[in-house]
Target: RNA polymerase subunit sigma-24
Amino acid sequence: MNDRDQGFTDYFASRSSAFRGTAYLLCGDWHRAEDLVQNTFVKLYRAWNRVSGREALDAYTRRILVRTFLDENRRGFFHRERPAGDQQLGDRSEPPRVVEDRLVLLHALRTVPPRQRAALVLRYWEDMSVEDTAAAMSTTAGTVKSQTARGLDALRALVPTATF
Model:
């Protein structure tokens, strides 16, 4: 194995599982997340010799992942999930458990439009700045702010008892 392949193999081994988590939050399906990560790393491998700054590799890879996710949604490769009926996530007499809250939030996140979901995941899961999120999404900081605000509004409407 040459140095190029070894470097890529090492990077894939150390970072692919983290990108799977991000991909899952973007698409809401583990199988599709695997496909997104696979497509992302195929694209990264093709550009591996042109990637100049290894310190910015995570940001570059994340950008490929988000673009791949948004492109697939734009082109209609995968259908968007929609909630089944008008289910109220509703009133609970006892405090919710953490696992239940997480499942409700993940379900609600899948119903948010793809660009808003990408903005939310990058800003709050990846803890990226507005500017870094804009770069990853190939858009402006203003668009990131509006997509994030709309996404949070959508989540609040779906999960009225949550505090985010």
In short: The mean pLDDT is 82. DSSP finds seven helices and no strands in the chain. The chain has two domains: 1-77, 93-164.
